[in-house]
Amino acid sequence: MLDTFVIPLLQIAVLVNALLVTVTFLVLMERKVMGWAQARLGPMRVGPYGILQAIVDPIKLILKEDITPANADRFVFTLAPIMSLVPALVVFSVIPFGPEQPYYIADINVGLLFIISVTSIGVYGIILGGWSSNSKYPLLASLRASAQLISYEIAVVMTLVSVVLTAGTLNMIGIVEAQREAGLWFAFVQPVACVLVFIGGLAETNRLPFDLPEAETELTGGFHTEYSGMRFSLFFLAEYANIIVISAIVALMFFGGWMRPFPNVEALAFLDLIPGWVWFCGKIFFFLYLFVWIRATFPRYRYDQLMAIGWKVLIPIAIGNLVLTGIAKVVL
Amino acid sequence: MEAFVFYLLATLILGLGIMVITARSAVHSVLFLVLNFLLVAILYVTLSAQFVAVIQVLVYAGGIVVLYLFVVMLVSLKKAPELRSDSRRVARTGLLLAGAVLAELIAIVWYTSANGSAPPAQAASDFPPRLAGDAMLNTERLGWVLYTEYLIPFEVASMLLLVAMIGAIVLAKKNL
Amino acid sequence: MLEITPLHYSVLSAALFMIGVIGVLVRRNIIIIFMSIELILNAVNINLVALSDQLQNLIGQVFVVFVIAVAAAEAAVGLGIIIAFYRNKETVNIDEMSLMRW
Question: Which chain C residues are closer than 8 Å to B19 by Cβ?
Fold first, then answer.
């Protein structure tokens, strides 16, 4: 009873709350970093250096009126944000923050496949949200978004397969342990795959330079134009939770998860004083920062350019990488 | 516990199946279909077929049904097709035929459970070829079988997918 | 009642199969007919996986993989046909799809 229900529920409660708090502060971090990148200060009014902005924003969103458009499909309109948030949260059940029990919720032997398949459910939220609003721009945006997500998903999955080939397992803990055995982070073994997964991750989470589904200058805001209040914030949460998921996947699969840098070098053993989950969170935050940095740096692609990059560049590179990995695996 | 999970899942799967074919709007149908597939995937997990369960979610729920949703949204109709024809007559004939098939299926199930006992559980050891004994996991074993014993069907399936892909492009593109 | 035998799974599979058949026969919207066919394929898959578990034999699961591949191919081509047809005739009612050429 204690092991099957109480402890997992406690873990889930801690994880979900930590995640939601992280998301609120992630928004603040994004605004601050964007501000610094553009030589301004970012939010400064609420609390010292605007730190309390992270608490004020959610309160504002919750208190706002929740409007349903007159001709919207009410059932689907309410379901869509839920369908986009739930997969993003479910993924965290198999992401390990450390090698032993209290640091992961479930250790399943098809962990990576589980992550890929559950994140692929998230596209429904976007399609249905755009359709049920019964409005032109959201519909166009959702068609764009789903085409983009599906195209880039192919590239990302094929790239991840080459990493699985290197590690020889689909288990997330197993992949990290394989990096310990190899003595190298997979970022150095599979540099192409690492870059590809990160680019694909940018596209899958609708971030700049691939944020066409939310291009406010073309689509008046994207698939969630008609949403407001709590239902809008669910979409918002889902997007940021997905960014954290991608960062966590990159950190786990290419940057050694909870392991310190150079896990086999004895001279650096003093770094083990820092617990593993802190390393892992630190790596996640580095990639979160990278997401914001890229947003501040790059302009948005045109839609045809986006599709051309997905299908004509990323997927061929992914296939080539997979074939090379296979050959290397057989030869070595 | 096992029985409870099975009955719960079975009820939900059948209920959602009925909702798929009775829903007024095609988008609602697609939605119920997704939920149905997700529940079937959970059923596979209870049958210790983890790989198939994940593939079910990835390919069916994440791929095929998204395609359906796309087509439903592209083919947005002003009037539901049912309204244009004599649906009552069609429904009656359909239900009659379906009832006949159901009777047949029940007869088969009843006959087999009455006459032949279930075939004995085969020893796990003679299949698949022993790679690492019983420690092999579901995914590994499936991969092993798929790439040794079923290699040619597997390649045929990949050819089928290639042909389907080319066919879909030819059909959907206005002018090549 | 409390022990779940393969018969239970067969009955579930048969019932889901029937729901699919009824959908194919009763509905006129070709997209919903396609979805009913997916339900039928799923019913078959449930049976295969249940028997694979019962016999401790992986062939059932191998077949499920092939069924899913065929379903994907069928969906791609079938929906392509629907789009091509809709472009010409502006309908998805199968009663109006009686012409072999136009």
Answer: none
